[in-house]
Amino acid sequence: MKERGFMPFTAVGAIIIMLVVAIVGRAAWSRHERSLYSINGAESDAVLTSVMGIQNDLKHVARYAVYKALWDVSKRADHYNDSETREGAIESLARRYFSEFVEELPRNYQNLDARVELEIQNAIGNSSFDMRAEGDFASANVKLSKKSQISASTWDNGLSITLPLGDFDVFVDSRYYLLQNRMDEFLNNGLEGIRETWRNIEYLLAWTGAWAGIGVNLNEACSKAIFELAWAKQELDTFGSADYIATAMKLSGIGGGTSGPEVLSTISNPPAVIPLRAVDIEPMNGFINRALNCLSLASSDLTAANAHLACAKGSILQIPDNAENTTLIESARTKLDAALSSISQSKNRVREAHQHFNQLVEFTAQAASNDFVMAAIHDGLTKGTTSNDYVRGNYPSLREQVEKGANGIEDKIDELTAMVQTQLNTFSSDNISLIKNLVSNFYGQANALIQGLLDEPSPKRWVEFDLYDEPGAIDETPNPANGAVPVYIDDERDGKIRALEVILQSVKASLETMGELSERTEPPSGELQGVEIDEGLRQGLETDTRGFETNREGLYEILPPPPLRSQPGLSVFHNFNIKSIRYEREDPVGWLVGQNAPPTPIWLIFFTLWYAQWEVTLELEEGPIEEIFDFANPTLPRSHELSEILGNKIAVDVHKPLAYRHGVQRRTFSFKLVIISLRGFSIAQS
Amino acid sequence: MFCSNKKEKAQHSVCAAALINSSRGRGRAADRGSNPRAGKSPCSAVRGLKPRLTIGERGMGYVADMLVFALMISFASALLVKASPADMRTIDDRYTANFADSTLLALQNATANELGGLMYELGFSDFTLNFPILNGSAGRDLGYKTLMQLLVEDALCNLHIELDGADVNLVKLSQDMDVKVKVLLKRALDRLTGGLFEYRLIARTKPIDVSPVAKVWFETEVESSSENQQRAFSKTIAMAMPISWQGLLSRCQEVHHIDFSSFNSEPNTTVEITLELWPR
Amino acid sequence: MAQLSVGEDLFATISVVGLTVLFSVALAHSYHNYAERRNTYEDLSTALDIAGQLKNDILVEHGKFTSPGFIGFAAPAELGNYCKMLTAQGIGVFIEVRDLDGNLVWSYGSEPNAFSGYFSPPCSVNLPIAIARGQGSAQLGELIVRVWRS
User: Fold this and answer.
1) pTM of this prediction?
2) Domain count for chain B
3) By C-alpha distance, which of B42, B35, B39 is closest to B20?
4) Would you tell me which of A493, A520, A586, A657 could form a disulfide with A630, CB atoms 3.0–4.6 Å apart?
């Protein structure tokens, strides 16, 4: 190796070290830059998070503004005409409260973090809230002014972020729309339902009194209790719960006559009401139709017999006086035999008709043991009407008339038979002139007898009675008109086929009239089935209400009563007082005589329908209130004074359920109560 | 042994050359059987220069050179090993910070019903209320509220009002809410952090000194570990309470008969929510 | 070179060569570490950037009750365009949204295969999010973003 150009290793090492130092320095610089990048990234993320946190906070603030607006409007829901107006009010109030909340926010945020600046155009008109339903809940679309923005920057102002505040939605966890819809349903349809339920329960009690012989007893205490129950029942049907505490307090406080618990007990097990139209008149009409058919056939038979007799007479009169016993006599004899046969047949028909009528009586007797309506019909068939307040004269029972009539007809037919038989015997004589004379006389008598049986009956006498207006047909003159009904059969001699037909047809007509009246005046069965009180409500009404004399409405705001049904999960408060209840008799007798007068009779010949009619009117005191609470979502943070619980004025912040309060405009409830019965009943009113 | 200047270097080279030549001469002399120069330094034979280095001295120089070279190489290698283009701690820190930010935003949006719900009872047990029928009425179900909203409302319902250091808020109906909110948040944060981080979540209002003796404040804390970690990442957001400061102060005035006539500042009624995270 | 003697020169040569080789190895190893750390850092940084952008912008359901960090229950349409843009830049991405129990809510993309995963191992980050559940409800979940270089 030459000496020149020789490089010692240390020099090489030094060069290598310098290169490595350069590499390390470059790496360190690169690491520094990357660290700066990470730090900047973290810083920008932090700034962005601050901005986004404020944006989320504005949503919460908007939600609180909506909470407050919902509370203010819902507590005075009746101050607004309709749901649109109410929504407009909520939106307007929410806008105002939002601007009040937001007024302090820029300063508050900046006090906490000087890098953050919130610019929000805070005039009320610069934001808008658009409410809408989200299922049963509510949501609001919030639009802020276009100039609103959030700015934030890093400490060294190296990075600055500006986020314009756009529209956003907030979900409100209170079921405002459910409350509004249910309250509207209660006010629009529910009050009518209360009236109907009250009417049906009153009808049930009155009907039971009329038919069970207790008498119809209308009194204020009972009616008040029934009205309270009807209101609670309607609340349960509409809201899924009722203000059972208030109703229980009222029921326990109602005294005099039938008390609340007794009414409740009656309604819990309502008797089965059997309307008159439920009576199955088809079987009864069947018996009557068969009897009428037999009588019609009997008439035909007698008419045929009369024809045979006329032929026989004609045959005999054609025989010359000097003729011997010829075949003409045989022809006449044949005719007379045929007449006898027809006459015998008609007697059987009449007897059969009598049997059908007896079967009708037997049918009603058998049914009477289980059915008091049929028992009354049976009495009507078998018992006559004696002279009384509204019937002037005795009217014999239908059974008696039919029996006498049928017997009388049979006797006359027997007499006719004997006449024909006698005439038949004279045909064996050789004296044609004698036969001719006898047959003329005979035919005259027989014809008169037959015509007597077939003629239209003429009344033996008339029975007068008071003819009152039927239920619902009351006019300004309730005085009864004079009615009269003919009596065709007083004894057996009055027996005529046509008379029997008239009597049997009147039975049919009376049954049909009874059905029509029932259809017109008695409530449908379906309505009466709905009066039963729910078991949950009944248990709620047995609540111990001691200690609830406090301000219930204030108490319910913080401790709403648990709903009777889990769905939809609403609590109910109501406040109303019954000012008066009036009962005005509208049936003629009641109108003429007085409130406690007996019922008005509608005499239908073989039975009497008794009815009484009232116009019952209930009036509430001014200012009835209905209020419902969203028990399942007590989410509104509000201040509450605990005076109703603790007695002194201490305010706490608690979560309350949204309350929807509405005044009830309708204060008058009335209905017509009509009770008809086949039995008379007493009436008492207090 | 280092040559400090060129002249010495040249002399050394000459000495080295002389050393080589003398060694060769000795070798030839040995071959011939004589050593005319034995015992004399080869460098002394060069007039005007230092004595030539012996073979041992030259070897020592080589060794020293190589040792130095080796040392330098080692040093260079050590420098290279330490060279790193990035400090992984910064990226970890960035991730932790990002995680904290995301957690706070997620808590601002997540609702309680998806975490099992939040139900609590108003604390009426302290009062002898004769309303047995209303036993089921004190329950509160706040499932639709976000977790941060629950914290804010917890602050509102459980504010501390102190007079002369004593808490005058005698009626505490929502204490159960405070407990349940903390349990819910702890459950949420335990599952979110998933064992990666320890955390501490603090919600507080700035104490409002309404008078020299009266103070209104709120503070609550949820943590996974009570140790104080120096390397914790903290992020704070602010949320407004659903009450204006005027409303808050007027309530205190009415109920607790606190005189605010001398109070003329506008206090801050927001709730600061701070999340501290540190790696486990 | 004629003046070189075999003994010390060979030793010196071997020593120097050996040291140089050691140094080269150290240099190579150092570079490998350097590259690995750099890639890891950049992958993690990219993953964090992408996760942040997804969480704050791409996956947010605009207009409803949502906000940054509050994502929808299904992958939005914009995600496809975003993933295509990343693919054009040579970045593969696989996105999963899971609830706190670990159940998959939805996912998007395809996982890297074993071959490409060997040369460019994916980097994964997960961040807490809120997932919209409708009618104002939202559940906590995590957004898992897996990123690799394709």
Assistant:
1) 0.80
2) 2
3) B42
4) A657
